[in-house]
Amino acid sequence: MKDFRSRVEGERAYLLRYARLQLRDGHAAEDVVQETLLAALAGEAGFAGRSNLRTWLTGILKHKIVDALRRVAREAPLAEEEGEFDALFDQTGHWREPPSGWEDPDSLLQQKQFLAALERCLAGLPQKSARAFMMREHLGFETDDICKELGITPTHCWVLLYRARMALRECLQETWFSK
After folding, report:
1. What is 4-75's CATH topology?
2. Within 13 A of 54's CA, how many CA atoms are on the CB side?
3. Both ends of the chain: CA-CA distance in Å?
4. φ and ψ of 178, to 5 deg
5. Residue 139: CA atoms inside 13 Å, Cβ hemisphere, count?
6. Which one of 62, 80, 137, 155 has the largest count of C-beta atoms within 10 Å of its C-beta?
7. Is 86-177 CATH 1.10.10.10?
């Protein structure tokens, strides 16, 4: 079996990509990855091999990201953003023009190129929308927790999530599904 330290360090690039996607700040991402690697090395005895090393490290990283997001939310308020996507839906709430190519999203998520396109689309979102989306979809925050962290109302949170999803849909439609 490989040396634990070298296996952990071998996951650094993946963890850094994940953290950059979540935090949208290279320095903050580097900090949380370093904290993750230190925690993993210190907690080597806690890793009994019951799960994949990357999965275990990602779990640690998620907690470090949540802590970093909380620090950032306490330190600086974020600007509001604008944009409406109501024109995409009819009166019944259904898509006017359904997304094409979304028949099997689970297999698409397995593709590296799709993940790269998703990362580019996430980077194009307004900061507050992106943070709300990442907190909800990637970190599993509940609406109340997102509201507390971002200093917003539940209604505003739902609007941010809605806008983020619509912008991601539009971006992915243009950059990925229309290829």
Report:
1. Rna Polymerase Sigma Factor; Chain: A (1.10.1740)
2. 9
3. 43
4. -90, 5
5. 29
6. 62
7. yes
Please, are residues 24 and 123 in contact by the beta-carbon 8 Å criterion?
A: yes
State how far the Cα of 65 lies from the Cα of 18, in Å rounded to an integer: 10
Q: pTM above the 0.70 mark?
A: no
Chain segment 128-168, per-residue pLDDT in tens: 998 899 888 888 889 998 999 889 999 999 999 999 999 99
Number of H helices, E strands in the chain: 9, 0
**pLDDT tens-place string over residues 90-128:** 777 676 776 665 566 666 555 677 778 888 898 899 989
Backbone angles phi, psi at 43, to 5 degrees: -105, 25
Rounded-to-integer distance, Cα 96 and Cα 149, Å: 34
Cα–Cα nearest to 126, from 44, 24, 18: 24
3 state DSSP class of 89: strand
- Please, how many CA atoms are within 13 Å of residue 124, restricted to the half-sphere of its CB? 16
Type of residue at 15: L
DSSP state of 107: H
Q: Where are the domains of the chain?
A: 4-75, 86-177
Secondary element (H or E) of residue 146: helix 143-150
